[in-house]
Write a structure and sequence with these properties.
- The structure is a single chain.
- The chain contains 14 helices and 17 strands.
- The strands form five sheets. It has a six-stranded mixed sheet, sandwiched between helices. A four-stranded parallel sheet has the order 8-7-9-10, with helices on both faces.
Length: about 425
């Protein structure tokens, strides 16, 4: 009986000690850590069909983290705190992305998040961020559907596709001869690409350009039959809402079928190094939309200037960055400015994360390598950076050349584009 009594006391003591330990733990049983660095989550496409774009965002975020750490970290008051990036792979899939970001939040206790390459994944993880109250800025996603949901904890650096998408059509409708009269439009069925196609259609109709065909097709579509049907319609413009792989496949299919419109108009992807590397002369004269080019020379506190940043990327990585990569590099700078504004030190409490959201809403950066940053706090583009000027660019000799609007262009658009065999 005596031994049984002592065993009971021992078991009760163990239970009591465990209760004391767990009372100081978070919801997942892990005690809140003390650290002298910011733990920053990165969720993007590290595998799957959008891995190339995912690696662009990853590189953009890493360049910021490496540069800020070289200078001692994020300055808060009279101290500096280094940055540690924690990666999660969304596998180019919204469902996988939602699962990955939730695991990262609960296991890694990240302070804030740098967001996905695709709009579809961004829309899928935004409700998870609302649940855990974790601020995120995406340096890539552009679908207006994101901002229409008015998520409190989600912000975006690049203006929505419905702001930028009209620029190429407007340029062609006003600044070339002969003026285009007809257009065919293809959109891939994902949130970003579909939004681009819709913007092309709306802009064409406003400019009096007749829409001969408008098709939204699944990702992975064989474009050959579609291009054959469009060829018979003889549109002046073929406009495509998609990603770099889609654009390359459509141009290749067009060349194979002997179809050459007066202009290919495409949005994201034609400015990426992969497009010009893979397409060579066949990619020249393609027209697209952007808010940033390497030709800009803006001041930047971290990198010195746009020029310095571009030269650094060319030297260290052998690439000329596109607007998504530059947008991702700036994302961390915006967080750093907001953290300094509220004097927040790691790890961030829930109260500090809410203050960080308020600071992001109030932040106005005039000098960054990407241009001015200010997030909308009302309307259809809630928490998106809407202050940048949409530009029309054309790939000429493998480089991005600003061809519109007329008052900002480096040269007039080349239209109609020359035959493939005469370039």
């Amino acid at each position: 009986m005596k031994n049984t009594f002592y065993k009971t006391i021992y078991v009760l003591l163990i239970i009591f000690l465990l209760t004391l330990i767990l009372s100081g733990c978070g919801g997942n049983g892990v005690k809140e850590e003390t650290r002298n660095y910011f733990k920053v989550g990165v969720i993007t496409s590290l595998s799957g069909p959008e891995v190339y774009g995912g690696n662009i965002t990853k590189r953009g975020y890493e360049v910021w983290a490496n540069e800020v750490n070289k200078k001692g970290g994020i300055k808060i008051g009279d101290k500096k705190y280094e940055v540690k990036l924690v990666f999660a792979d969304d596998q180019s899939d919204p469902t996988a992305g939602a699962d990955a970001v939730e695991r990262m939040i609960t296991s890694e206790k990240v302070d804030f998040i740098l967001g996905p390459y695709t709009s579809g994944v961004t829309m899928a993880i935004a409700p998870i961020l609302e649940k855990y109250k974790i601020p995120m800025i995406t340096g890539s996603a552009e679908s207006p559907l994101i901002w229409q949901q008015k998520f409190k904890y989600t912000f975006g650096i690049i203006p929505a596709a419905d702001i930028t998408g009209s620029s190429p059509i407007t340029t062609l409708a006003k600044d070339v001869q002969p003026l285009p009269k007809t257009i065919a439009i293809i959109g891939i069925n994902d949130p970003f690409s579909k939004s681009v196609a819709e913007a092309f259609k709306k802009s064409a109709e406003q400019e009096g350009i007749k829409v001969l065909k408008y098709d939204i097709v699944p990702s992975g579509t064989d474009f050959t039959p579609l291009i054959s049907a469009i060829k018979e319609l003889k549109p002046d413009i073929l406009a495509v809402g998609g990603h770099d792989k889609d654009h390359m496949e459509i141009i290749k299919a067009s060349k194979t079928l002997g179809f050459l419109p007066k202009a290919f108009v495409m949005h994201y992807g034609i400015t990426s190094p992969e497009f010009t590397k893979n397409m060579g002369k066949d990619g020249d004269f393609t027209i697209g939309a952007t808010v940033w080019t390497p030709a800009l020379n803006l001041k930047d506190e971290l990198f010195g200037s746009t020029k310095n940043y571009v030269e650094f990327m060319q030297k260290e990585y052998g690439v000329t960055p596109d607007y998504t990569e530059a947008g991702c590099a700036v994302t961390g700078e915006v967080f750093a400015a907001a953290l300094a504004k509220i004097n927040a030190t790691p790890p961030l409490s829930e109260e500090e994360r809410d203050k960080l959201v308020t600071a992001l809403e109030q932040i106005e950066l005039k000098d960054t390598l990407f241009g001015p940053i200010k997030f909308a706090t009302e309307g259809n583009w809630y928490h998106d950076n809407t202050g940048l000027k949409p530009l029309t660019v054309q790939i000429i000799d493998g480089k991005q050349v600003i061809v519109g609007p007329k008052n900002l262009r480096e040269q007039a658009p080349v239209y109609p584009q020359p035959d493939f065999d005469k370039r």
